[in-house]
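Record pair follows.
FIRST:
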Amino acid sequence: MTPPQAATPKRPTRQQQRREATIAEIKDRSREQLATGGAGALSLRAVARDMGLSSAAIYRYFPAQADLITALCVDTYNDLADTIERARTHDSDSAHRMRNVLSTFRTWALAHPSDFALIFGTPFPGYIAPPGETTEAAARFATALFVTYAEAADAGAVELSAVQVPADQGVGELADILVNQAAIVPPALAAGAISGWVSTLGFISAELWGNLGRIVDNTDTAFDAHLRGVMCSMGFNASDLSANNKEQSDASEVRNARSCREPGATPG
């Protein structure tokens, strides 16, 4: 008996294609507004005017500004997650892979400052992303972070006793949702992963929105040092993080490893 063949997917109608193209253009023009005007600059009426649509027509695609913002947030989370997933494949060493994930987060943010502001700032006053609509996309980024950290712990690259977070620290409502979405990561590891992410997020925020560029003369060098400290606080060994640094001496490797794993130790 010949097995039934899978049904051929129906091609979208011309009307559906036009609708999808219009939605894509609305999103593109909205991103342009956010990039040039910053948070709070988005106006559905202005987007409609730029596209030659009536103000009423654009509301057939996005009934409210919040709906458009939510759609942009979902796209942005997915773009960040795709970028992070690619970074995870660049190194077989688990410590370097974790470093790649966190440093790629910064690289992405510097290349897309308005997108970073969209999902980690406040697009306009009073907006709160609907969890049911954004959780899956946000969880893709969180999953890449959590799983990378869990893989490093499984490989023995993380010393959990050296993780610089309170032993009884739990996770909040949003983190609990994201951890459950990841499904693989034991809650005990979540606090270390979240601590590393928040520390990296803070540096990026200071770099993009604060005066960090006026405080230090080289933010790249400052970030390298900051990230090393962050990963030490996550339980990684400094000598593992510097294995590719040919300029660092063996003595320096030992001293830095001791400062990571023994917070009270003095260099020597």
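SECOND:
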Amino acid sequence: MKQPTANLRKLCRGLSPRYAATVGVLFVLVAGAGCQAWDWRGTSVLTGQPTVDEVVNTINMNVGPVRLLVADDVGITLQTGERLTQRVATAVGTHFALRGRLAVQKPRRLRLIAGTSFSRELDLGSNDREFWLYLRQAREPSLGPGTHPVLYHATYAEYRRSGAELPLQPEWVIAALGLAEVDPSRSHLLQPGERGTVELLTPVTLTNGLPAVLVRVLTLRSGLVTQVRLERGATVVATSELSDFRNFPDGPSTLPTRVKITWHPTNTRVTLDLRHVQLNPALDAAQLAQLWQSPYPYLVPNGMATAINVAQVAAQQRRRQPPSVRLFEPSRPPYQRYP
């Protein structure tokens, strides 16, 4: 595993407070959190033969203090592959780069708004009840030729009943960002990874109700999660590579500021570069409620977007026989000691 030491001299560059000029952003925060370049050299955080409890505690001690994360400046690059489904490929295109804003509140609240100084191009979000994706220029086949403003949405209950699979569900995105804590009361398996790493395997249930495995790759020397995988049976569904770590005294936590997510079934790659990051900013109840509110009441009744319920579409298109899913299987035998 490559150590995240690249560009250490640039880690604190450009972190002066400023306001992000993004039309439609629902809240404005002054980015004043300090950071320090992360230096992994020195004594290993985990030595010998770590136990499951030691690995879980190491992860939770780092990310546990992070209740709310806000990044006022996020670079977003998306590339789609040849295997991307026609509906998604035509909706988002094959490549785009935007700047935006990110907010995350565990366990499943997420908001990513991106665009230009003149328009909101993308709004990806979720709250405790539903998730959504707004695209200002979606090429939606059901709406005819050209581009259209479209709000794709569904509640978790609807989506679970549909039997569909969502590439980036909220819990997976938060885990992929390296922010998810590990529940110590659940069953976990620990296995050796590549040199200098261990892999913590946790059985999970996807939003659609299907079983999967969340794999966190932890570097023994730093004690940091540098890769997260989502697996179903022997298939790696998604991979997240975490790098450019920084120390945030407000946590205190050491977090990645570059995240590369690959959704393997469609060969889709998303890269997020986080700047002007704040941990646990002071927001009142009204600000939080506005932050996690779907744009549906604003966009759809006013004729500013067409709403498409992805759960209903998936239920109509799914096959009569649902695909078979292998039960939880670790890719390698669990271990108690290193060989």
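COMMENT: Residues 87 and 141 are 7 Å apart (CA to CA).
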